[in-house]
Amino acid sequence: MRRDLDGTSLCRVLGLGEKGMASLVGAGGKTTLLYALARELAGEGKRVLVTTTTHMMAPLPQEVSAFILSPDPEEVIAELRGFPTGWTPIFAASHKQDLEGKMVGFSAQGVQRFWEEGFLDWVLVEADGAARRPLKAPAPHEPVVPPGSLWVVGLVGLDAVGKPLEEAWVFRWEIYGCLLGLDRGEEVTPDSVARLALHPEGLFKGAPPKAERILWLNKADMPGAESAGHRIISCIEDMGWGGLDRAVIGSALSRESFMACFRP
Fold first, then answer.
1. Helices 190-198, 225-238: crossing angle, 10 deg rounding
2. Is 12 exposed, middle or buried (0-12, 13-18, 19+ CB in 10 A)?
3. What is the pLDDT of residues 86-143, one digit of tens each?
């Protein structure tokens, strides 16, 4: 079932509830979508924390209201309680990794603590890394999704479709090829992306059993990308949707080019 959603809020597009923890995995725009969602929720008066269970770039000043850096989740919680109710989104990380500004996050259990304290409306988690590639397959230790995540959003950059299976386009291309039966240099097809989304060791690996799984096909504003997105959806429909709850073709950067939403 398709529903066009031009101008609709990200919360509605993703099917999010009033409060909870959402984790983003995959590649091709996680950080952009994470901050867009954080700003939208904060604009509605929600108390929003942005954090990670892996590594991510430090936020820009316009992306968050405050920044907490501490390896101790209990110290982070104490600082969070000291902020005024409306002063969000807030970013928290354990420590800085390097001079380039990469921030190291917390364990899944540490992030779970932030949510269990009960005073936050939203905890938004970047739970996967992709070295800025548009597509990835997870290694055995990935992704790192907190168990309390009620929504897991898996991203795919549509600019990878039609490209060769190489490191330049697919992070952990060897795993992608092994999972989906492709050799290095073969074309990344819509069918292979659909199968990655539905494979038990693929895009949504490690998602909590009760979490909703949302596929976000990103960068639909690029030439030919929207058509590639529709071909992926068609493949998913032919495969019976698996454990997916919805899929979106859109752009985290441009509201004018989002969205079409699909559900089983």
1. 50
2. exposed
3. 788 999 999 998 767 789 999 999 999 999 999 999 999 999 999 999 999 999 999 9
CB 163 within 8 A of CB 32: no
Cα separation, 214 vs 211, in Å, equals 9
- Two tokens, residue 169: 């386009």
Cβ neighbours around 143 below 10 Å, total: 27
> pLDDT band at residue 256, thresholds of 50, 70 and 90?
low
Alpha-helix residue ranges (DSSP H) falling in 86-221: 108-116, 173-180, 190-198
Do 34 and 124 meet the contact criterion of CB atoms below 8 Å apart?
yes
Considering the entire predicted model, what is its pTM? 0.95
- Cα–Cα distance between 258 and 224 in angstroms, integer? 15
CA–CA separation, 200 and 179 (whole Å):
10
Reported for 225-229, long-range contacts at CB under 8 A and 24+ positions apart, including other chains, are: 225/158, 225/159, 225/161, 226/158, 226/257, 228/158, 228/161, 228/162, 228/190, 229/158, 229/260
From the list 125, 131, 128, the residue with the least C-alpha distance to 100 is 131
Q: What is the pLDDT of residues 146-198, one digit of tens each?
A: 999 999 999 999 999 999 999 999 999 999 999 999 999 999 999 999 999 99
Task: Please count the residues of the chain.
Answer: 264
Q: What is the C-alpha to C-alpha distance for residues 125 and 252, in angstroms, rounded to an integer?
A: 16
Handedness of CA 264, 128, 43, 208 (dihedral sign): positive
- Residues 95 and 69: their CA atoms lie apart, in Å, by 6
> What tokens does 233 get?
């959806």
